[in-house]
Write a structure and sequence with these properties.
Layout lengths: L2 H9 L3 H4 L13 E2 L11 H13 L11 H10 L7 E4 L2 H12 L5 E6 L4 H8 L3 E6 L8 H8 L4 E7 L11 H10 L3 E5 L3 H4 L13 E6 L12 E4 L2 H8 L9 H11 L2 H23 L4 E3 L6 E6 L3 H10 L2 E2 L1 E2 L9 E5 L3 H23 L1
Helix pairs in contact: 3-11, 4-11, 5-6, 7-8, 12-14, 13-14
Bound molecules: pyridoxal-5'-phosphate.
Length: 368
């Protein structure tokens, strides 16, 4: 095929999409993988077997039920709500995307803190949103006064708050979230993907604030990132609207079986989250004791830290020694930033020892 038709075909793609660099990830194969905020504990084998046994008995030739009623019921019950308040998604990202699709037309305002999860801005750009950025404060806390101010503009359709925030680990309180919801005419999405590691939720606000939407995931504390499951909780009038943009049968029967069983594992989830929290404290303290390293307190299953040495040197120094973390230096405000996921105790030890080695080697090189 010659070049002309090729170029012509690409021109059919929206200019906003062509201008984007896309969501990419450097993923070298390292034995210690602490770059994606996954759960270091797999789903227990007996539970996997229960799920697989039920999946074996199901008829895979049929579509799932039109409405995943049983799963919505189990999740709703966990929050003291009826099934009408809940939507199930193929990962929580899909539900956040559904909210963008249901609310944002070209030129509509979206308020986003920065730095935060990059997917929100990506979804906003695809939808043609006019994105208004509110930077976090220097200590990575949310600038609530500025958020309230921006969100109060009459053209705002959506405010997205990630709490605990990826990649900083900072949280916004329910009282501050309520303030924003009170002042805006738009929807306020609170992405609580890391809720279990911080323990503070805005779910209870939805009875007073029908414009608040909460998203949760099975990919972090529930240890099922591979199954792609998430859910959304909001006022029933709102879930009915958002549901209209969801594709029918978006979650497969095996994931639906798993969702019902996993959501019931409250003790297991709590125990695992407690281990991660205590490991997080240990890693934070160890980083604090390292010269030239500044960690930020975190309410999630990762720790953001800054280094005096160039990020590139540390990031690749770790990779060369088999430890993969996340380079977040291209995020706004984080030119010196890296993020490490809290893993198993031995993985965290490997990260800390290796980081000390990398820093010592660099110290020796710069002394020579
Ligand atoms: C803030 C935030 N929301 C959502 C997700 C993804 O969730 P899911 O796997 O449910 O799509 C992530 C994953 O890293 C995340 O950091």
């Amino acid at each position: 095929m010659d070049e002309k038709p090729r170029n012509a075909a690409v021109r059919s793609v929206k200019a906003a999409v062509r201008a984007m660099s896309g969501y990419t990830l450097v993923q070298p194969d390292c034995p210690v993988k602490l770059n994606q905020n996954e759960c270091p504990f797999d789903v227990p084998e007996d539970l996997k077997r229960e799920i697989v046994d039920e999946a074996l008995a199901a008829n895979w030739g049929r579509y799932p039920g039109f409405v995943p009623g049983e799963v919505k019921e189990s999740i709703g019950k966990r929050h003291g709500l009826g099934p009408g308040y809940v939507l199930i998604g193929n990962g929580s990202n899909e539900l956040i995307q559904a909210v963008f699709q249901a609310t944002i037309a070209t030129g509509d305002r979206v308020v986003l803190p920065a730095p935060t999860f990059t997917l929100y801005a990506l979804m906003g750009r695809i939808a043609g949103a006019d994105i208004r950025t509110v930077y976090l404060k220097a200590d990575m806390s949310f600038d609530v006064d500025r958020l309230v101010e921006e969100s109060a503009h009459p053209e705002v359709r959506l405010v997205v708050l990630c709490s605990p925030n990826n990649p900083t680990g900072s949280m916004i309180s329910p009282a501050d979230t309520a303030r924003i919801a009170e002042e805006t005419d738009g929807l306020v999405v609170v992405d609580e993907a890391y809720y279990e590691f911080g323990g503070v939720s805005c779910v209870e606000l939805i009875s007073d604030y029908p414009n608040i939407v909460i998203t949760r995931t099975f990919s972090k504390a529930l240890g099922a990132a591979g199954l792609r499951l998430g859910y959304l909780v909001a006022d029933q009038a709102l879930t009915r609207e958002i549901e209209k943009v969801e594709l029918p049968y978006n979650v497969n029967i095996i994931s639906l079986i798993a969702a019902r069983k996993l959501i019931a594992q409250e003790t297991l989830i709590e125990e695992r989250a407690a281990i991660i929290q205590s490991e997080r404290q240990r890693v934070f303290q160890a980083l604090l004791n390292l010269p030239g390293i500044r960690p930020y307190p975190s309410h999630a299953n990762f720790v953001l830290f800054e280094a005096e040495r160039p990020v590139d040197e540390i990031f690749h120094g770790l990779i060369d020694r088999g430890v993969l973390i996340r380079d977040v230096s291209r995020y706004p405000m984080l030119e010196r930033g890296m993020r490490v996921t809290i893993g198993l105790p031995e993985e965290n030890d490997a990260f800390l020892t290796t980081l000390r080695d990398v820093l010592a080697d660099q110290g020796r090189e710069s002394a020579n």
